[in-house]
Amino acid sequence: MKKNFIFLTETESTNNYANRLLLSKAAEEGTVVLSQFQTKGKGQQGNYWESESGKNLLASYIFQPSWLKATDQFLLSKVVSVAITDLLAEENIDTRIKWPNDIYVENKKIAGILIENSITGMFLHASIAGIGLNLNQSVFVSDAPNPVSLKQVTGNDYQIETIAEQLWEKLKIRYNELKTGNPAVINSVYMNRLFRYGQWALYARQSEVFEARITGIGQFGQLQLEHSDGKITEHFFKEVEFVI
Ligand code: BTN
Questions:
Q1: Candidate from 114, 116, 143 with most ligand 1 atoms within 8 A of CB, to mutate
Q2: Is pTM, for the whole model, over 0.85?
Q3: CA–CA dist 208, 206 (Å, integer)
């Protein structure tokens, strides 16, 4: 995989830019689009991703996992979240993956991931892994519930380009591990780093708040919860929320 970084000052969304490159066949695996600022940074579920200009990592890493079955695409989500936690562990920050793929330092969100896949037949064609990692921002103004930056945690300043390259190395390792090996490794690391795995905690569904604990994650990324009466339920993204 050849590394090819594209640095932009401003774009609507690095994911959209990466998508246009793919559509015009101008991108191959290893292309990474970075921008200082996004005018329409995309979060999950149509939310806006807040990031002050020049302060944080806003990057879209392009993969072409034509070897991965579409039904296994949640494995890519695991690869990306685990790679970010690998990187932050090197900075001595202990992070957890809040299902499905938010990266947390204690009870605060330090990074968000938006993966956009295209599929051909039964297999994946291209995957755009959009990553927003808060580095140097110290004030957050949007209504995102609990953002935090690396600088707020350590007091240090970070160089976006250096972090982007280090993350690329971590992504390559986890991606190749999945490509050439067996998914058991990524599955077990993901579970080991899962926020509140096995712990009784509060969750909300519509207006109901209940106590439950995570017992597993299904093949399609469904959250499996055990309730106080022993019943197990499965939930897709946004059907339940963590009470934090
Ligand atoms: C989330 O809501 O947690 C996902 C946030 C993903 C944000 C990143 S920033 C780089 C890339 N480009 C986008 O428009 N979104 C992702």
A1: 114
A2: yes
A3: 6
